[in-house]
């Protein structure tokens, strides 16, 4: 749709602009709620920064793992110049890799400065789907992560990635709406449990809801670079593992915990 947004004489990539707006919206949401969780303002910002760095590293790493078989298959045909390496590392990110990397980086910070992981999990959980709303809108504008061909949908004319002139299912916007709904569910849960001690349940609920959404929406994805094994994509297998891990947690570890 709009790979670049022109502001004055500058052409700004729409995906990164939407990511910055998503980060801003998430920070506003966090600062509006931080007193409920007794997390200092500087810690709030530092955890966000650590999470962003970890997310970028994780998202790029999982992307490289996903395309590694294809790269190895055509290694002899690729011109491994500086420009090729630059293109390889400048584009291509997988959200689940970013989620895992961001979580690990934030957890390291919390452990280092003795911040309750349960409180941090409940505190940051609603900000994750809110950020993702803007990220998926950025995907839609940029034309990446496009949907399958469908009898109705959107038609790109200037996309640098998605096929132009073809009616595609707007899977990016569908996921954006689902993420907004998840954010609302988490905030309503937080309001209902106001006054209780943090349990970390908000993050588990977010992970379970998003895993279900992602598993289903992957069937409507049309881009090929996602990795496939036994009929499922990489993200679908990760969704299955997340749901399995959460199920084991509640079955064996915390059967009586109120979330």
From TrEMBL:
Keywords: Cell membrane, Membrane, Transferase, Transmembrane, Transmembrane helix. GO terms for biological process: lipoprotein biosynthetic process. GO terms for molecular function: phosphatidylglycerol-prolipoprotein diacylglyceryl transferase activity. It comes from the Bacteria. It holds the Pfam family LGT. InterPro entries: Lgt (IPR001640). The chain crosses the membrane at residues 12-32, 44-67, 87-111, 123-149, 169-188, 200-217, 229-251. One of its GO terms (cellular component) is plasma membrane. Belongs to the Lgt family. This is Phosphatidylglycerol--prolipoprotein diacylglyceryl transferase. It comes from Anaerotruncus colihominis.
